[in-house]
Amino acid sequence: MRILIVEDEALLQKQLADALRTAGYAVDTASNGVDAHHLGDSASYDAIVLDLGLPQLDGISVLKKWRAAGRAMPVLILTARDGWPEKVAGIDAGADDYLSKPFHMEELLARLRALIRRTGGHASAELLCGPLTLDTRNSRASVNGQALTLTSHEYRVLAYLMHHREQVISRSDLIEHIYAQDFDRDSNTVEVFIGRLRKKLPPGLIETVRGLGYRLTAGG
Which residues does UniProt assign to DNA binding (predicted)? Predict the structure, then answer.
């Protein structure tokens, strides 16, 4: 799952990026509204953390531009503690949730997980597919209760497939959602990750749909 962090305060941006990467996300960052608008308009994100007080172009304007262009990714806005007018303006502009500064990192992570779950139509923090369980709170996967040992990229591929289980996911979609912007992307590595996952999962869970991509299914 790929997240964009838009925050002009360097230390907070780094803290957010570090926490999200530790939680298993691919992370891009932007420090001003112009760069944020470009990234959100040209790349695919599973969620965006957007500070409203940005240089060059404020967060509300960025959000309005995304929504006007039909960009529907979930957006969590960051506001000042007493900035209730900003919260109202942000929600009206198309934000899905808000968090007031200062905040606890665990709350931000929980709110992001909830936004991503709701976008995929999932009610629980634990995603199930046959014998496979993905605990999004702890970034862990297990089969019949036995924990799986996964690399960070294997986890990202599995998490994306689990959030979109029973759907055909193209290789290009996987590439867009498991790698950050500055990562040297090689489409062949997706096949490698899929191959590794198949060795760790029960047979038939990950199907290859010829010419289209992959599907995670409990009916395999």
Answer: 124-218
Residue for token pair 């530790």: 22
pLDDT digits (tens, 9 = 90+) for 66-123: 999 999 999 999 988 777 888 899 999 999 999 999 999 999 999 999 999 988 888 8
Q: Which H or E run includes 39?
A: helix 33-42
Q: Which residue has the tokens 């999200």?
A: 20
With beta carbons less than 8 A apart as the criterion, state whether 205 and 193 touch. Answer: no
Strand-strand pairing, 206-209 and 97-100: unpaired
Find the angle CA(183)-CA(136)-CA(37) to the nearest 5 degrees: 45
Task: Provide φ and ψ at 69, rounded to 5°.
Answer: -85, 5
For residue 186, how far is the Cα from the chain centroid? 20
What is the residue whose two structure tokens read 């808000």? 98
Range 2-120 classified under CATH 3.40.50.2300: yes
Domain chopping of the chain, boundaries: 2-120, 126-216
How confident is the model at residue 122, as a pLDDT?
A: 87
Return the structure tokens found at 75.
């957006």
Using alpha carbons, select from 75, 28, 79, 80 the residue that is nearest to residue 48: 75
Helix (H, G, I), strand (E, B) or coil at 6: strand
The CATH number given to 126-216 is: 1.10.10.10
Of residues 128, 127, 162, the one with CA closest to residue 1: 162
